[in-house]
Every structure is written in C-alpha cells, then in structure tokens.
Amino acid sequence: MYDLPEVRWATDALWSAIATRLSAAGVAAAPALTRGPAPPDLWTDPALLFTQSCGNPYVRHYRDRLRLVATPCYAAPGCDGPFYRSLLVTRADAPGEGLAGFRGAVCAVNDWDSLSGWVALAAALPEPPDRFFRAAVVTGAHADSLAAVAAGQADIAAIDCVSYALLQHHRPATLAGLRVIGQTAPAPGLPFVTRRDADDGTVDALRTALREALADPALAAARAALLLEGGEVLGEAAYDAIPPQPASTLPPAPAVRRATAPAP
User: Fold this and answer.
1) pLDDT in tens, 114-143
2) Helices (H), 48-186
3) pTM of the model
C-alpha cells in the first residue's frame, strides 16, 4: 500500500527475503511481486499468498476473503507501534487552526473506502460530514489530495501519516505551501494479509519469514527506506475498533487529474 516508485527497490528486497525464507520452509512463493491488478482483484484472488490491505476495506468488505498475518510498525510521526493516524492538511495561508474552522469547506478524499482519507476524517468531525462539509473532491490518491488542496480545489484533506512521511522525504515539493493543523484518532495500521482459507502452517510460515526479514541486518537500508521498524500480530478485535464508514453523500466538487504515479 506504500509502494511508491521511489521505494520499490526496497519493497522488492524485502519480498525477496521473505520469499526465500518461505521457500525454505516448504511454502511456494513467487520470487517477484505481482504489481498492476487493482487491490480488490488482489484481495479476492484465490491464489493470494501475501499482500497489504487498508483496514477499512478489510473490515467492511473482505473479512470473509482475507486472514490477518501481522500489522507493520512504521517510524513516521503519527505512528505508535502498530497504530497510525491521519494528518489534517490545509494550505499554509488558510485561516483556521483546527478542524472546527473548516465548516462549510471542500474536503479532498482519496477514496470513500479509505480509512485514512475518509473514515478517520469523518469520525473526527463534530457532526455528520454532509452537514459539516459543503462538497468533496475525490482524487484517487493521497498525493492527489495534497495537490488538490495546494491548488485551491479543496480546502482540507486527511493524509495517512506514513504516506505523508514518504512524500515528505521523496517528493518534498508535494508539501510546499501546506501545513498540518491536527490529526485523527489512532487506528490499527494497514495489515499484511493472506487469503482467508490459508492453513495455520502457511500463516505461521508467513509470520516467521516476515519477522526474520524485519530483523535481518542485511535489510536495514530497505526497511529504513520503507520506514518499517517492526511488526505485531493484532487480533481481529483490534480492527473492530475502526469507526463506521459514513455514506458518501457529499456533493462533488470538480475532479482533479490522478497522479502519474499514485501514492496510497
């Protein structure tokens, strides 16, 4: 879910280490990652071995198709162990020092199913979103939500703090003229998952391979590039704490062009 082109070398290195360990444990694992299919197609693929999911789609739509493996821990401001937050971002010259000052504003939303970009934002509002905001721009990616705010097409956006940290490092121009005015409540991070019918032996092998890769000194540079500092096995109950998904009833504002290389 955080597979920016700038860090794909690190994602590939991490997966290669995991796949090697899985193969040694007798679990067939492709040596290279599959990229390209839309996330719902991956999450419902009967041959799925390992991927990452947003927490809200997992809870709302794919719990009967996906099984939790582990939750990554990221070294990004706003993260706390396996939990993360969204940062509330507006223009540097926008009035208002907190979310309450954006009543009647236009929000940028990467996707209505996104926990970080929509569900967490709606849960932070003092009233239902269709009474708080006047319209929404649906952008398709956090990077595009930032662009919409910077261009004045939207006034505020909730940005996954890991995405924000990666963009800050690799695409600092994306954040020019913007400022953070707050953050949402913590939520369990984007889980690593496998297919729901994976047997216990496969899940144990995935967890062992992941744990070893996250501790391998030879992968320190790859982990640093991905902001990965560990992982924990959270129970499904942790994801039950994700707030309910509100209806996407906001009037549309003019759409913005998707980025050439979308961020999560």
Assistant:
1) 999 999 999 999 999 999 999 999 999 999
2) 55-60, 120-124, 129-132, 142-150, 161-170
3) 0.93
